[in-house]
Specification:
mainly beta, 9-stranded antiparallel sheet, about 45% strand
Length: about 140
């Protein structure tokens, strides 16, 4: 059994066709690329907060530059996940605006500008289950 999510490299599958590949979970960052799904092509490196809930159950949480708040519960034995995310209204009006790389200053300038003028609420809530495979 996987002993921790930290230090892993994985492919992660979520509801509605979302595939994150690769995902690299570090001690204080998550680095992911959306390979398939509503905003395929997005790449991001996010600072995470990590918590071991119980043996074999870990939590990563982060707040993205676009305003999205994400919490993932990782069930290590079954290699399943539960995602809770709250996306701002401006981003989900056309989620393709999130395609890009948050390591690119031009991308950050563009999405921060959209966030400054777009409505935050009502937020779109993602509350779903997924699974992951180790790479």
């Amino acid at each position: 059994m996987l002993s921790t999510i930290l230090g892993t490299r994985l492919r992660w599958f979520e509801a509605d066709g979302w595939v994150f590949d690769p995902v690299i979970v570090g001690a204080d960052t998550i680095d992911y690329t959306v390979k398939e799904g509503p905003h395929a092509g997005r790449h991001a490196v996010q600072r995470i907060h990590y918590h071991r809930i119980a043996p074999g159950i870990e939590l990563t949480s982060w707040h993205e530059e676009v305003g999205t708040i994400v919490n993932i519960v990782w069930y290590l034995e079954s290699q399943t996940t539960h995602r809770f995310a709250a996306l701002p209204a401006w981003a989900t009006a056309d989620i393709r605006v999130l395609v890009g790389d948050n390591q690119d200053p031009a991308y950050l300038e563009r999405v921060r500008g959209l966030a400054a003028v777009g409505p935050d609420a009502p937020r779109t809530i993602l509350d779903d289950d997924g699974y992951f495979e180790l790479l």
